[in-house]
Specification:
7 helices; rod-shaped; 313 residues
Length: 313
C-alpha cells in the first residue's frame, strides 16, 4: 500500500500525486509500487526493497541521489490471543525532494505521524522528520519494554500456585522478545552513532540537540532491556523450580491420602473373604459390623493425625 502525505500550515493531509516536500509511505508495497517509486526518485530497486527482508540489518547507505537509513522497529505479534513483541526493519530514504519510508507492516511509529499525533512535524523538513521518526522509535521501544515488564508481573502472580508449564512458556516467550529488543537496539545505536558523525545528511543546530536526545533515549532502552532480561531470566529459573516443588507437594499429599485410605480397605478386604464366620472377630456380635467400621475409621484418623503432626499433609 502506498500513501503520500504532506504537511501544510502544520496540518498533515493525504495527496494523490508526488509533490516536493512530501512523504511517501510504503507499507507492504506491491512490486508495481516499488518500481514506480524507485523510478520517480532514481533509487536502486534493491535498496528500496531492502526493508522488506525481515532479516535485513540496521545500517546507513549514502548514494549520489539519496541516503538510506535502515533501523529495527518494535511491533506486536499475536500468538494464541496474547501479544508478543518482535522487531522488523524499516527504511527511511531521503531523496532529493521527498522522504520515503518502507516497512513490512503498519507500525505505531509511522502511524503516529500519519494520524498527526506528533507535534511540530513537517514533511518538508527532511532531516528533522527523520530524527523525529527515530525518536518515536526509541520511545516505542521503551513503552513496549514497560508492557513486557507488566506482563511478566501478571505471569509471576499466576505462577505462585501453578503446576503447569503454560506460565513458564509465556515467560520464555517474553524473554525471547527481550533478546530481540536488545539485539535491535544495539544495531540501532550503531546507526545513530554513524548518523551523528555522518556528513551525508545535513544537520542544523537544533537537529543536533534532537539527535542527542534520540541517542540518550535509545541508550535508556538498551539499559532497560538488559535489566529486564536479567530479571526475567532469573525469574524463569526460579519459577521452574517452584513449579516442580508445587508438583512434589501435591504428590506428597496424594501419597498420604492413599496410605490413610488403604487402612480401612485392608480391614474390609479381610472381612470380605470367604472364611468360616466363627473364625472372624466380632462375627457373632449383633454390633460387629458397626464396631469394625468404627475401628477402621479411628485407626485411619490416628494415622492421619500422625502424618499431620509431621507436616505430611
Amino acid at each position: 500500500m502506498m500513501q503520500i502525505f504532506k504537511t501544510t500550515d502544520g496540518r498533515i493531509s493525504t495527496i494523490e500525486e508526488k509533490e516536493e516536500g512530501c512523504w511517501i509511505s510504503l507499507i507492504a508495497p506491491s512490486e508495481t509500487e516499488l518500481i514506480e517509486v524507485a523510478k520517480q526518485n532514481r533509487i536502486e530497486l534493491d535498496d528500496i526493497r531492502a526493508a522488506l527482508d525481515d532479516e535485513e540489518r540496521s545500517r546507513i547507505q549514502i548514494e549520489d541521489n539519496y541516503t538510506m537509513i535502515i533501523v529495527d522497529v518494535p511491533t506486536i505479534e499475536m500468538r494464541n490471543e496474547k501479544p508478543y513483541y518482535v522487531t522488523i526493519p524499516m527504511s527511511i530514504i531521503l531523496a532529493n525532494k521527498t522522504i520515503i519510508t518502507v516497512c513490512l507492516e503498519k507500525t505505531e511509529v509511522l502511524k503516529a505521524f500519519s494520524e498527526a499525533r506528533i507535534r511540530n512535524f513537517h514533511t518538508h523538513m527532511k532531516t528533522r522528520f527523520v530524527l523525529q521518526i527515530l525518536y518515536k522509535n526509541a520511545s516505542m521501544f521503551l513503552q513496549y519494554l514497560r508492557n513486557i515488564n507488566r506482563q511478566s508481573e501478571t505471569i509471576e502472580t499466576n505462577m505462585h500456585k501453578s503446576t503447569k508449564n503454560k506460565e513458564l512458556i509465556e515467560m520464555l516467550e517474553l524473554e525471547k522478545s527481550l533478546m530481540y529488543f536488545t539485539t535491535s537496539l544495539r544495531s540501532n545505536e550503531m546507526v545513530l552513532e554513524k548518523l551523528l558523525k555522518s556528513e551525508g545528511i545535513k544537520k542544523y543546530p537544533e537537529d543536533e540537540d534532537l539527535l542527542e536526545d534520540v541517542i540518550i533515549e535509545n541508550k535508556q532502552a538498551i539499559e532497560m532491556s538488559n535489566i529486564y532480561t536479567g530479571i526475567l531470566s532469573g525469574m524463569t529459573d526460579a519459577f521452574a523450580s517452584i513449579i516442580n516443588n508445587n508438583l512434589n507437594i501435591i504428590m506428597k499429599i496424594l501419597a498420604t491420602i492413599t496410605i490413610v485410605l488403604s487402612i480401612p480397605t485392608m480391614i474390609f478386604s479381610a472381612y470380605g473373604m470367604n472364611l468360616n464366620p466363627s473364625g472372624m472377630p466380632l462375627s457373632q456380635s449383633p454390633f460387629g459390623f458397626a464396631l469394625v467400621i468404627i475401628f477402621a475409621v479411628v485407626l485411619s484418623l490416628f494415622v492421619a493425625f500422625i502424618f499431620f503432626k509431621n507436616n505430611l499433609f
